[in-house]
Amino acid sequence: MDTGATPADARPFAVTNRSVLAIAVPMTLAYLTTPLLGIVDTAVVGQFGDAALLGGLAAGALVFDVVFNTFNFLRSGTTGLVAQAFGRGDETEEQAVFWRAVLIAVAAGIALVALAPLIAIAGQKFIGGEARVSEAMGIYIRIRMLAAPFALINYAILGYVLGRGEGGLGLMLQAVLNGINIVLCILLGLKLGWGVAGVAWATVTGELLAMLLGLAIIVWRFRAAPRLPRHRLLDMAAFLRMLSLNRDIMIRSFSLLAAFALFTRQGAQFGTLTLAANAVLMNLFLVAGYFLDGFATAAEQLAGRAIGARAETSFRRTVRLTLFWGFGLAGTATLIFWLGGAGLVALITTSQDVRDVADVYLPWAALTPLSGVLAFQMDGVFIGATWSRDMRNMMLLSFLAFSAALFTLAPSLGNHGLWAALHVFLLVRGFSLLTILSRRVHTAF
Predict the structure, then answer these.
(1) 304 Cα distance to chain centroid
(2) Which is higher by pLDDT, 41 or 318?
(3) Which of 9, 60, 128, 273 is the most buried (most CB within 10 A)?
(4) Which residues cross the membrane (predicted)?
């Protein structure tokens, strides 16, 4: 299989279909609880029959998507660094990585709480909704932002757990988080009639309780591990490496959000029906993305562990198996969307006009899992290997390619050109990383 001498300090390990699925399956289930929570939040507020409350909730949730996606590096960056320490068998560094991530999470979380009023005002001005929408939005943001330190620490906890390949524990923690959130959302928001405020307080409480549970599990585990010396925790070089990694992932996330924002904005230029149809169709891609994310998470842990273990064979097998499962899943999703997409669209919207427009562009949406699978899996491999600079640079390249395709194709082909530009974005993301993968593997091993 792989040629060349094995380093004396290598710690090879078996990468099998079972080890891939042991991470991917529970994390796919965990990721799927997130949209379920959004559905419950919307359903609870919707019971009040006030469109302004629904609009305020949706607008507030959009603000949090932007804010917290910005800090998602605390999850992915921690996963890669812990996986590498796990591969080296360095339990002390696993602890150090986790506590460094917690320190960053606490500092960032406190800053977000302090900035909550300004974030609420900025969000209200950006959305530009009517007075009652802005009022509901402000209430939601100011309350929910209190959860920022807890939510960011939960990112660090999940990153540590996934870095060790414990998908089952990750599923349990996410189920507890979203389960508590859903129950309290119904109790506070609906039963006690708190509305938007109740939904926000449910999130704060869920994040707090999930954080306490996660910290209790990890601290109990650390009791049996070697004691963490203070100088290891406060190692400035390690802190700077983590900050550099997190900065690159943040830039990559911003670029991704910018691409989808441009897609939405351009769709709006084609009219309200087209905008609505695109939003419905994007749900198909997002659902497929939750499944693909499970295998990307498996790639993160196994690739990172292989880098730490200096196990080239394990690394190459990780890439092959996660791509195999990813393409199999993407192909299945594309077939389902192609054959049954019209029925899925009908479930999402009751508007016949929107359905008619969506059916025209359905083939483009049906193909997005296949176009995007390589991007998902390569992201997982590069995050695990902590090759963050490459991820950042290739994402910026992909954004430029998307922008060029958008402004070239959309004027002449309309919404067909917009969807074609999205496929260009997904394909360039995946193939650009794949192109440099062999060079990075040669350097790493």
Answers:
(1) 18
(2) 318
(3) 60
(4) 20-40, 52-74, 97-121, 141-163, 175-194, 200-222, 249-268, 280-302, 323-349, 361-382, 394-412, 418-437
